[in-house]
Amino acid sequence: MTRVAAVDCGTNSVRLLVADVHDGTLTDVERRMEIVRLGEGVDRTGTLSPEALERTFAAMRGYAALAAEHGAERVRVVATSATRDAANRDDFAAGVREIFGVPPEVVTGSEEAHLSFLGATAGVSGLATPVLVVDIGGGSTEFVLGTRDVESAISVDIGCVRLTERHLAGGTTTQAVAAAIADIEAALDRVTAVVPVTRAATLVGLAGSVTTVAGIALDLPAYDPARIHGARIGAEQVHEISERLLAMTHDERAAIPVMHPGRVDVIGAGALVLDHIVRRYGLPEVVVSEHDILDGIAHGLVA
After folding, report:
1. Which of 69, 97, 199, 217 has a 20 to 30 A CA-CA distance from 175?
2. What tens digit of pLDDT does each residue of 28-51 get?
3. Is 6:74 a contact under the CB 8 Å cutoff?
4. Which is one GO molecular function term here (predicted)?
């Protein structure tokens, strides 16, 4: 058995998993998530702001202390879309090295997709194959089709933070939503050209936008990972929730019991991405997984 610490630094959140790995199985010791919005403004400026970096480093210092407290033998830090896109990613790398003593891995979109597939398929059993794993992040969304192994994958720039900053920051007007949809559909054209999505027997959805939609669909009184993991949400329910979220005010979204405060302003875009994926590809439902790239990072430490 090996105790590992995995850190996933995305566009919107930074997450920690400390787990014991034995014979390919993860046993959680600690999971943490903080919304730090590392990618704030990156789509417009091409750089990570000093304020976003400091928010991220503050969360990471706490994570490094937890990893040490739990006796993690190996640590792996993976950074994704926002850091890939930033001209000053060396500043981020230097801060991570100082905090954890290891450099971050700034993974490509393809590598991110593979890690997401590994984590998701290890965490949900009994799925009809091939499986299409969709990871809706802050800066990008990954699409991975596979059975036991990845057969094809692509990463496209339609994350919930990116789309919100581009189109919805001023409000969810008809014109703003139409512009966001145009970006989503153009990205899905690229997905279709690379990934044979029509072969998918099951859609597995990952990350905060998907799990939040699931929590709303289940009408949970509070966020409950055990209830959300493995839930099956029908296409019509996804569509209804997406439309409802886009029509709500900020305060109305904030009052939803399962809503994390850091997702209030970007959940409309995330739900819109999920809705158009389901409708574009004629998928009857999404199976929701609480296991994702973070689990894939941890598995990779002992592979």
Report:
1. 217
2. 899 998 989 888 887 788 899 999
3. no
4. pyrophosphatase activity
CA distances for 299 relative to 104, 111, 121, 231, angstroms: 16, 14, 12, 23
Domain ranges, residue 189: 124-288
Among 296, 128, 123, residue whose Cα is nearest residue 226? 123
**How far is it, in rounded angstroms, from Cα 21 to Cα 2?**
5
Residue 145 domain-assigned?
A: yes
Q: State how many domains the chain has.
A: 2
Give the separation between CA 209 and CA 189, rounded to whole angstroms: 21
Indicate the helix (H) or strand (E) that contains 191. helix 174-194
Residue 293 counted as domain residue: no
Find where tokens 């919930």 sit.
160
Nearest to 107 by CA among 79, 139, 74, 143: 79
Tokens coding 149: 């192994």
Using CA atoms of 80, 81, 87, 91 in order, give the dihedral in degrees to the nearest 10. Answer: -30
| Cross-strand partners of 202 | 131
- Predicted local confidence at residue 21, as pLDDT: 87
Question: pTM for the complete prediction?
Answer: 0.83
